[in-house]
Model the fold of this input.
Amino acid sequence: MKRLVLVLGDQLSEGLSALREADKDSDVVVMAEVDEEAGYVGHHPKKIALIFAAMRKFAGALRDAGWDVRYTQLDDTDNAGSIVGELLRRAEETGASEVLVTEPGEWRLINKIKHAPIKTHIFQDDRFIASHAEFEKWADGRKALRMEYFYRDMRRKTGLLMDGDDPAGDKWNYDHDNRKAAPDDVTVDGPLWFEPDAKVEEVLALVEARFEGHFGDLRPFGFATTRAQALEALDYFVKHALPRFGDYQDAMLEGHQFLYHAVVSPYLNIGLLGPLEVCQAVEKAWEKGDVPINAAEGFIRQIIGWREYVRGIYFLEGPDYPSRNVLKQNRDLPDFYWGAETRMNCISHAVGQTREQAYAHHIQRLMVTGNFALLAGIDPGQVHEWYLAVYADAFEWVESPNTVGMSQFADGGIIASKPYVSSGAYINRMSDYCKGCAYKVSVKTGEGACPFNLLYWHFLDRHRERFSNNARMGNMYRTWDRMDDDRRETVLKDAAAFLEKLDAGETV
Ligand code: FAD
Ligand code: DLZ
Ligand code: SF4
Done:
C-alpha cells in the first residue's frame, strides 16, 4: 500500500519520525509551499525565504537519498493552497490512501491534519529531549511549574555538564554571573552568514514578488539553508562568541545587533540542527577549556531548560493558551511595532533590527518590546501575533509561551512567577540606548520623562489587586506606597496623558 509522508517546513530533519516509519521503496514524500502556511500571520519575508529555501534543499537531499519526493512550489499552477489540500491532491495523483506525519508544532495544524478527509497517522516529534509524556509526568501534582527544577532533570537525563550525580562546577545555574552591562570592546561581528546561491536567489525573487507588503527587509539574506551550513554557523559561534556569551547575555548595544548570541534558533526550530548536538558542541568547548562554565551552562540551560520547558507548557496547556488574557489588557498594538516613528530609542532599535534581520535577542524581546507592551496594557493576542510574524525562529509552540506567558503574564503566572516589568533604569543599565533617546531616563515625571518610568508605576497601580501580595513584588509596592500622594498622582496623570497620546496615534 502506498502512503504519503508529509514533511512540513519546520521538519527538515533526516531522522524525522515520519520518515523513519515510512518505506522508501513504496511511500511518497509530500512537501508543499502553500499560501495558508505563508499567510496565517504576515511572516517576515526573511522567515518565508529561509523556510522555502531550506525546504527546497531538503527535498533535494531526500531525493539524493532515494526518496520519491513530490514538491509543490508556491507559484505552481495546480498548488492547492493548503497542506491538507496538497495531501488530497497528491493522494489522488499517486493512489495513496494514508498519510504519515510527525506531530506539527501548532494546534491549528494538528487539528487540520486530524480532521483531514484521509486517514492520518501522527507520530511523536522526538527531535526534543523531553516527550509530552515525560513533561506531563514532571508537571503532575506540582503547585508551580518552575523551569529550574525541570532543567535539572534534563541535565540528569542528558548527562550534560554533570559530574556523576552532581552538576559540574558544583552549581546548577550561573545566572548571577551572566548579567554584566554592555561591554566597551565587542570582539565579534555577528554570526556567520552565507552568500545566497542560485537556489536561494530563486526563492528570494519569489518572496519579493509575492510578499511585498509584509513587514521586514528581505535583503541582504544570509541565513544558512542546509544542515551543513547550519553546522558551520554553530561552529563559528562556539569558537568566536560563546566564550563571552554568558557574561553579556543580557546586554544590548546599538551598534551590535547580535552581540555574543548564537543565532541558531531558526536552524534548531526548522530542524537543520538538533538540540542535543548543539549542547554537546558547547560542552566539548568547555571540556577543552576554551569557554568558561558560566557561558557553557548559561547556553545549555536555554536549550535543554527553557526551550524544552516552553514546549512542554504549550502542549500541556492546550489550544486556548495563545488567546489567554488574565490581566484583561486590550489596547491595540501601536503602529511603531510595524516601523512607524517613535521617539523611544530602545523601541526604535529593537524594532529596526527586527525589520532588518528578523532577529532580536532575548532581552530585546523581553525587556524592550515585551516590557513596553505589558506596561502599556496592549492586548496580548496582538502582541503574540506580532512576535509570531516578525522573527525567523517563530513557531507557535515556542513563541506563544514566551510571549503570552513569560513576557505578557497573560497566562496568570504559569511560566513567570512575577511579571517581567521594569522602568527605564534597567534598559539604561544593560544598554547604550538611553544616550541617544529623545526622552531622559533619569527624568521620572513631567517634560522628557522616560515612558517606561511612568508606565511602570501605572502598571503596578492598575494591577495592584493581583500583584500586591506577590512576595517577589513587595519591594516594588512598598516603594510606590512610600511616595507622597502628590508625586503618585503626578506619575499616574503623566502616564495617562502618555497613553492618551498613544491611543490617538500621535508619535510618542
Ligand atoms: P541565544 O541567546 O544564543 O540562546 C541559545 C538558544 O537557546 C536559542 O537559539 C534558543 O534555541 C534557546 N532559547 C533561549 N531562550 C529561549 C527561550 N526563552 N525559549 C526557547 N528557547 C530559548 N525563541 C524561539 O526560538 N522562537 C520564538 O518564537 C521566540 N519568541 C520569543 C518571544 C518573546 C517575547 C521572548 C521574550 C523570547 C522569545 N524566544 C523565542 C526566546 C529567545 O528570545 C530566542 O530563542 C533567542 O533570542 C534566539 O536567538 P539566539 O539563537 O541568538 O539565542
Ligand atoms: C512557517 C511556514 C511557512 C511560512 N510556510 C510553510 C509552507 O509553505 N509549507 C510548510 O510545510 N510549512 C510552512 N511553514 C511552517 C508551518 O507553518 C509549521 O509547520 C507549523 O506552523 C507548525 O509548526
Ligand atoms: Fe527607552 Fe526610556 Fe531609555 Fe528612551 S530613555 S531609550 S524610552 S528606556
Notes: The chain has three domains: 4-123, 132-191+241-317, 335-503.
